[in-house]
Specification:
Strand order of the largest sheet: 1-4
Number of helices: 3
Helix content: 40-55%
Largest sheet: 2 strands, antiparallel
Strand content: under 5%
C-alpha cells in the first residue's frame, strides 16, 4: 500500500467557525478556569493555614513575653518585699541597739527630759541642753505645762502611770490621739 499525502491549508477563521472546534476550545478553557479556581482556593487555604500558624507563633511568643514580664514583676516584687523585710530587721536591730544604748545612762550635756520610748524608763532625750536643763523643744513643752515635763527628768524618779502628752489634744480631726495613761514596761522605778 502506498501512502498518499495531502497538503491542505485552512485559515484560522475557517477552523474557528467549525462548531466542533469551538466546543472543544470552550471545554478546554472551562477546564483551565476550573483548574485556576482550584489552585486559587488551594493557595488561599495554604495562606490561611500559614497565617494561622504565624498568628499562633506570634501569640505564643506574646504569651511567653507576657509571662516573662509577669514573672519579672513578681520577682521584683518578691525582691522588694525581701529587701523591705531585711531593712525592717536591720532597722529593728538598730532601733533595739539604739534603745539599749540610750537606756539607763545619763549624759550631763544632753537634755534632762525623760522620753517615751516604747515604755522603757530612763531613756534620755538625745538633744543638747539649751540654757537650762532641757533642749529647746522640751523646755517649750514643759513651759506650756506649768514648767513640768510630763515624764519627769531623767535624773529624778520617774512618774508612775503618766498621763499625756499634755501638749496634744485628746481628739484631733475626730480621731483619738496618743493622750492616755502610759504604762512602763518594767515595774520598778
Amino acid at each position: 500500500m502506498s501512502a498518499i499525502t495531502f497538503n491542505v491549508t485552512f485559515s484560522v477563521k475557517d477552523i474557528l467557525r467549525d462548531p466542533r472546534i469551538r466546543k472543544a476550545l470552550r471545554d478546554r478553557e472551562d477546564a483551565h478556569l476550573k483548574n485556576i479556581d482550584w489552585l486559587d482556593e488551594d493557595l488561599a487555604e495554604k495562606r490561611h493555614l500559614e497565617n494561622i500558624a504565624w498568628l499562633d507563633e506570634d501569640l505564643t511568643e506574646k504569651r511567653h513575653l507576657e509571662n516573662i514580664a509577669w514573672l519579672d514583676e513578681d520577682l521584683t516584687e518578691k525582691r522588694h518585699l525581701e529587701n523591705i523585710q531585711l531593712l525592717d530587721e536591720d532597722l529593728a536591730e538598730k532601733y533595739q541597739m539604739k534603745k539599749d544604748e540610750r537606756r539607763g545612762g545619763y549624759d550631763e550635756q544632753k537634755c534632762d527630759a525623760r522620753i517615751w520610748l516604747d515604755g522603757l524608763d530612763n531613756v534620755q532625750c538625745s538633744f543638747n541642753k539649751k540654757g537650762g536643763c532641757f533642749c529647746k523643744r522640751h523646755q517649750n513643752l514643759s513651759d506650756k505645762n506649768s514648767g513640768v515635763w510630763w515624764l519627769g527628768k531623767i535624773n529624778k524618779p520617774r512618774p508612775e502611770n503618766p498621763y499625756g502628752p499634755p501638749h496634744l489634744p485628746e481628739m484631733r480631726n475626730g480621731k483619738r490621739t496618743h493622750v492616755r495613761i502610759h504604762k512602763w514596761i518594767n515595774s520598778k522605778p
